[in-house]
Amino acid sequence: MAGPGARWKRHIVRQLRQRDRTQKALFLELVPAYNCLLEKAELLARISEKLQPKPNDVTPATLQGPWEEESGPDSDLVPSSSTLRVKWQEEEEGLRLVCGEMAYQVVAKSAALGALESTLEQRQSTLAALQARVAELREEQARQTRQVDAQRALNVAQRAAYEALRGRARLQEAALRRLEEEARDLLERLVQRKARAAAERNLRNERYEKAKQARMSLELKAAAQRTVSISESPNTIGDGIREEGKTLALMAEPVSPKSEAGEKWLRTFRSASATSLTLSRCVDVVKGLLDFKKRRGRSIGGASEQRYQSIPVCVAAQPPSQVLDVLDAHLSEVNAVCFGPNSSLLATGGADRLIHLWNVVGGRLEANQTLEGAGGSITSVDFDPSGSQVLAATYNQAAQLWKVGEAQSKETLSGHTDKVTAAKFKLTRHQAVTGSRDRTVKEWDLGRAYCSRTISVLSYCNDVVCGDHVIISGHNDQKIRFWDSRVPCCTQVIPVQGRVTSLNLSHDQLHLLSCSRDDTLKIIDLRVSNIRQVFRADGFRCGSDWTKAVFSPDRSYALAGSWDGALYIWDVDTGKLEGSLRGPHCTAVNAVAWCYSGSHVVSVDQARKVVLWH
């Protein structure tokens, strides 16, 4: 290995060689020019020597004066030496100037040549880098071309597989449609058979009841006309009374017509007192049976309806006046709010796909539970009359059912083809109604999560409410439609000025409160089916197509939220504005709820706020 001394020596040698090459390049053009100049100088020197006269060759002509120079005939042809010397000096000066100029040009051209050589070296290095880059790009192009070819081949294979899957999907869709048609036909036939069976059963039961009542009348007449001896002992009379009691018990039991026809009601009356007692008891039993069937709300032999227990009615509600609690309850806009029947449980639903349950304790809202599993934004929330279930409408084309105390959804009511905007429980158990933007209203059997009826309408449905046998829907075409659960068609249509945003039914089911985009609230008297009152106020405007307005529990006031965050309260009896409340809301109020006890009001807005009022 060479030491440090050898390295610096080699470095000096390289530097010297570099200097020699540089200096040589500077004089490559100067040396030939200088050599040429020397040759010309030698040539001029020889010519001057030839032209210069020798000392012994001085002729008289040379000694002549200026006045004699013109005397000779050839004097103008031979120049004098002084003239030649002057010319030679001039030429020498010119040559020197030319040599200087040429030397300057040589230096300038040498510098330009050095710059050009450095530029050439730079361009050569750049060219080499570009050539290397071109080679890399060509390799990359070849690789990309191979990848494109492979991807094209894969695309062709996938397209073939896709076409095959599409063909199978078409076949399966055709099979599905066929199966759905068969299922629909089977369902229709099943419903028809059930209807026929129910009609036949009702007819048999009616005939049986008539025959039973006729036999009972005959037996009563026969018992009243029968002569009874009074000489029997008290024990015998008691036996007779017990036998008559057994007879009435048998008469009260349901007996098939066949067994009833073969049985003879032969009972011996022991005394006149026993006869009169039996007759009065029998009449009371018959009246009791008939009264019981009337109280059940059905015809003789009809199917019974399971109804919820009645909700306590508020006697007097006070309008809210102050804020008790404010919460940022959801992660985004809050669309719905509803009180439970006990007035201490509250549900809120929003665009974050969550339903929060709150307890109203001491003028504060305390978190109770979060219901999860909704597939889209919550648009409507409702408690069943028992307070044990929560029903919510969502933007994922379905309504979902939760049981209070369970975080996950219990049932999903799917069947709509667009956003579900409203979902409400009916007064009968296991029954619900939903409205959607797909222009349908559906009735549901919650026990089987089955759609029992689909009502087609001509416009988007924004809200629904349910009475005993009536369903009322508010629509985007500025109309309120009434549907009877017992008939298939619309029974009545009430037009309003503006898109209907919400409906609220009073507790006595005699009045309907509607809110619409013409910035008015209307009270419809359902007994005469016309608009009884219209509420307006300066500054009140609906903030959205789902703004909700409600009655107070005693139907004394109407409450709604405005686009600017204020709450407006109207007196239903006088039709005047009771007042407006401005509080924590700074954006449009989407919904309001008034608890059944009449003590609290809750409002929700588009800025995630839930406000408790008293």
Automatic annotation (TrEMBL):
Domain named Autophagy-related protein: residues: 11-202
Pfam families linked to this entry: ATG16, WD40
Entry's Gene Ontology cellular component terms: Atg12-Atg5-Atg16 complex; cytosol; nucleoplasm; phagophore assembly site membrane
Main location group: cytoplasm
Coiled-coil region list: 113-200
Plastid as UniProt keyword: no
PROSITE patterns: WD_REPEATS_1, WD_REPEATS_2, WD_REPEATS_REGION
Sequence ranges of the WD repeats: 327-368, 371-412, 413-454, 551-580
Cleaved signal peptide residues: none
Matches recorded under SMART domains: WD40
Statement: the UniProt record of this protein carries the keyword Transport: yes
Top-rank taxon, per record: Eukaryota
Family that this chain belongs to: Belongs to the WD repeat ATG16 family.
Free-text function comment from the UniProt entry: May play a role in regulating epithelial homeostasis in an ATG16L1-dependent manner.
Record's protein name: Protein Atg16l2
The species this protein was found in: Canis lupus dingo
Encoding gene per record: ATG16L2
